[in-house]
Amino acid sequence: MTPVAVMVGANRIVPAAGIIHPLGNAELKPEEEKTLRRRIVEQALQALQADVAQPTVFQAP
Amino acid sequence: METLRVVCFVNQFFGQLGGEDKAGTGPDVVAGAVGSARAVQQVLGNEGRVVATVRCGDNYVAEQPEPAIAELVSLVAAQQPDLLVAGPAFQAGRYGVACGALCAAVQAQLSLPAVTGMHAENPGVDLYRRQVYIAETGGDTARMLDEVRRLVALGLKLVRREPIGSPAVEGYFARGLTHNVLSENNAAQRATAMLLQKLAGSPVTSEVPLPTFVPVPAPARVSDMRRATIALVTDGGLVPRGNPDGIEALAATRYGAYEIVGLTGLDPDRYDNVHRGYDTTYVKQDPHRLVPVDVARELEQAGTVGKLHEVVYSTTGVATTLAHSQRMGREIAAKLKAAGVDGVILTST
């Protein structure tokens, strides 16, 4: 869905782990899910602290 | 053929009463064509006679539109006309709105054909284009005669019940009406022709108007996250069990504000999900898969983030109209700003 976010003009975009569980993954063990969630949220915090001039996608490491 | 009886509506300036100093003047009627109505008579020639010019000050209409328009409709009706020509108003906003309102009113109440004209940026366009034929004019009042030609041509067609062509051809603002037209070529042929034109670098006109998204200037970055307040927002349909605010499952017009004061996480038993655009099984099992209160609270406690905002905003983002999306976004943003929030993490599905 990130191309849609770019198209409508969202400036800071972080790809998440899927539409039906953006911040999780039912196939992972609970602790692994939490680690995944934390990684994406931390990426979001990085995006908030970045200078952007136009829609920018911040890929999680 | 009987000569058509035409009534013109003009404001204080184009009716030769005066400028802004006369903008408060009430309605009056003058026999024949006065001021810019003379251009209408000139273009009509023998096809019609401007039997009267109805005039009114811009402020008189703007300050009390309903009674003013009612008075003007009566004055128009008394002339028993076949057509009302209002304006053209060019870029004059109050005048354009008055012209649009009067045309709409005489159409509805007198079943009288009416036409007006104004510049694309005149606020009267967006307000009345769907109800009234508004000819597109430039901004130069010195071109009055040329602009009036198009108005009158359109007006005559309306009176004679002749078919009105497309906006581009007849020079009026698109009214949002769709007409079925039989084309010689089917859609596959037309689409292929458009593609070939595009590949050849030629300009291509879309058959369907494409929505344009106005670029949103990126807000400045959060400079000190350790002192910042971060809020969580979602369009993934999270609601408290029972959906107390009645957030719609589709085409939402409402959003909810849900407090997380003192909570280190979202208990799945206390929440539900009304979104109908994706399989909500997984986010119902664990709402953190949508709204990461658990992780956000830990980051707050570790000092990575200054504060986690105590309210989560939520709505459903499926078939939500652009207009409602923008309105809800503006309203939520205003509340967040007033509460001192510095940044938002919006989870979208």
Topology:
The complex is a heterodimer of chains A (61) and B (349).
Chain A: H1 2-8, E1 12-13, H2 30-48, E2 56-57
Parallel strand pairs in A: 1-2
Chain B: E1 4-11, E2 28-31, H1 37-44, E3 48-56, H2 58-63, H3 65-78, E4 83-86, H4 93-110, E5 114-119, H5 123-128, E6 133-137, H6 144-159, H7 167-170, H8 187-199, E7 229-234, E8 238-240, E9 256-259, E10 271-273, H9 281-285, H10 293-301, E11 307-308, E12 311-314, H11 322-338, E13 343-347
Parallel strand pairs in B: 1-3, 1-4, 4-5, 5-6, 7-11, 7-12, 7-13
Antiparallel strand pairs in B: 2-3, 8-10, 9-12
What attributes does this structure have?
heterodimer, A: 61 residues, mainly alpha, two-stranded parallel ribbon, 2 helices, flat, B: 349 residues, alpha/beta, Rossmann fold, 2 domains, 6-stranded mixed sheet, 5-stranded mixed sheet, 11 helices
Overall geometric form of chain A: flat
Number of strands of chain A: 2
CATH level-two architecture of the largest domain in chain B: 3-Layer(aba) Sandwich
The SSE order of chain B reads: EEHEHHEHEHEHHHEEEEHHEEHE
Q: Main β-sheet of chain B: number of strands, strand sense, barrel status? A: 6 strands, mixed
- The Cα radius of gyration of chain A reads 12 Å
Tell me the β content of chain A. 5-15%
Low-confidence stretches of chain A: none
The helix fraction of chain B, in percent, is 25-40%
Within the largest sheet of chain B, what's the order of strands?
2-3-1-4-5-6
Proportion of residues in helical segments of chain A: 40-55%
